[in-house]
Design a protein that fits this description.
This protein is of the alpha+beta class. The protein is 50% helix and 13% strand. The chain has helices spanning 13-27, 34-37, 39-43, 45-48, 77-82, 84-95, 126-135, 142-171, and strands spanning 51-57, 66-72, 100-107. A 3-stranded mixed β-sheet has the order 1-2-3. Strand 1 (51-57) and strand 2 form a beta hairpin. Helix 7 (126-135) packs antiparallel against helix 8. The termini are far apart.
């Protein structure tokens, strides 16, 4: 009798989610999640901000010439109608074959994930500035020195932000 080996250690979460989400994607006509994850690259950031693909309906004969249902923010449907042929062309070039033949637009609010605005970088302390100067004193190439200084400043600023957040958590 053959025994299955148990995997030890960390595993990629995508390997676990992929199997469970596949059924939900197939139900909506998305055999591949690529169109959902690359929507912004397919239609461009301007149209992607006001739309999201909802369902891909295939004809009974084949997996070609499907109708893509797109949720479009109110007021953006005319824009999509104007660029319908271009959007279809971009989707088909993404898939590599004529997957979509027409678009069905639904005017409804589009739910977009909130983008977190990062807080401005915290200023470096004098000792941190001196440390960067000391470390980079041997670098003779000005462009490289400028870039290394930028990386070091960014890393130390992030470290300062984390320390400040930790201190606030301990105090509160």
């Amino acid at each position: 009798m053959r025994q299955a080996k148990a995997r030890a250690g960390p595993r990629a979460i995508a390997s676990l989610i992929g199997k469970s989400s596949r059924a939900a994607l197939v139900k909506r006509g998305f055999a591949q999640a690529d169109i959902l994850t690359h929507w912004s690259a397919i239609v461009g950031p301007n149209l992607a901000n006001y739309s999201s693909p909802e369902k891909l309906n295939y004809s009974r004969q084949s997996n070609k010439d499907a109708t893509l249902r797109i949720r479009v923010a109110p007021g953006w449907a005319p824009e999509f109608q104007h660029f319908e042929h271009l959007v279809i062309e971009r989707i088909n070039s993404f898939f590599g074959y004529k997957a979509v033949s027409r678009l069905q637009l639904i005017q409804a609010p589009v739910k977009k994930p909130e983008t977190r605005k990062s807080s401005p970088p915290l200023p470096l302390t004098e000792s941190q500035k001196n440390w960067i100067e000391t470390i980079l004193s041997d670098v003779s190439e000005p462009e490289l020195k400028k870039r290394l200084e930028s990386v070091a400043t960014s890393m130390l600023s992030a470290r300062n932000r984390t320390q400040k957040r930790d201190e606030a958590d301990e105090a509160g």
